[in-house]
Amino acid sequence: MEFINARGTPIPALGFGTYELTGTACRKAVTAALETGYRHIDTAQIYNNESDVGAGLAESGVKRGDIFLTTKVWMDRVNDGPLQKSVDESLKHLKTDYVDLLLLHWPVPEVPLAEQIKALREVHSAGKARLIGVSNYTVAMLRDVIEEFGAPIVTNQVEYHPFLSQKAILDFLRGNGMFLTAYSPLARGAVRDNSLLNEIGKRYGKTPGQVTLRWLIQQGSVAAIPKAGSPAHIKNNFEIFDFSLSPYEMEKIHALARPDGRLINPGWSPHWDRAA
Ligand SMILES: NC(=O)c1ccc[n+]([C@@H]2O[C@H](COP(=O)([O-])OP(=O)(O)OC[C@H]3O[C@@H](n4cnc5c(N)ncnc54)[C@H](OP(=O)(O)O)[C@@H]3O)[C@@H](O)[C@H]2O)c1
Question: Which is the closest atom of ligand 1 to the Cα of 43?
């Protein structure tokens, strides 16, 4: 495993995403991921699986202190008061006293940012979230969070894979001592059909998905959280620490980015930074 240093906390650069996993399938996938060696698990209130993730963590027998656990506050709970209450509920479902990282899941412009940040910081100060961050924020929004409110956020979780450039956000995060968490890192499975990723994979005996995850993590200051339901996929995605891409290959993969590469774009999305 490779680690990212976030204000002194080592974070496993490869995590396990759980969106769309619920019930027994989720519990088993989380257990399988932990058995495989993953120590970073990503969930969210809106995934409706925090209890199942909690059950998987408990069943695995892995010590809580060895796991980096992230959850996210949904958009209808970001007000001062409801946010803190919702985190208590998340902790109950997850069967733990704290999460390692708590994120605001999406920007909610209708609620003053100052109020959201105040609530987030309160949970942080209470020790219920060891680290705090945001998700789906633009550079301008990140700047507000840091410069206006001085909030010690460590990451912005955004869609990032070879078909979508996140240069502007990544440059900003790096410049401010933070890291990027790449969601939908496999472009929801679409990387498997790309000829360049297949061609590079053949050189190393790796799949296009493994090449993609390697490319993300090898950039530094980037964590990736692929989701996989099957034990074979869970294992496959973990086998990315025994090879390295050349600088030329890294650049070739960067060049796959295209203006219409974004997959996740719901109606409540912010005005995204222009893809470089
Ligand atoms: N913050 C946000 O707004 C946000 C938004 C989206 C996602 N996320 C987080 O990011 C995580 C990952 O993103 P995602 O679930 O959207 O997409 P993803 O990880 O890019 O792709 C998941 C898809 O890829 C398939 N897959 C996984 N490993 C594979 C392998 N080795 N070979 C072939 N196919 C493979 C999975 O199939 P199987 O399941 O059948 O294995 C699934 O269909 C989510 O689970 C969630 O935790 C956050």
Answer: 47
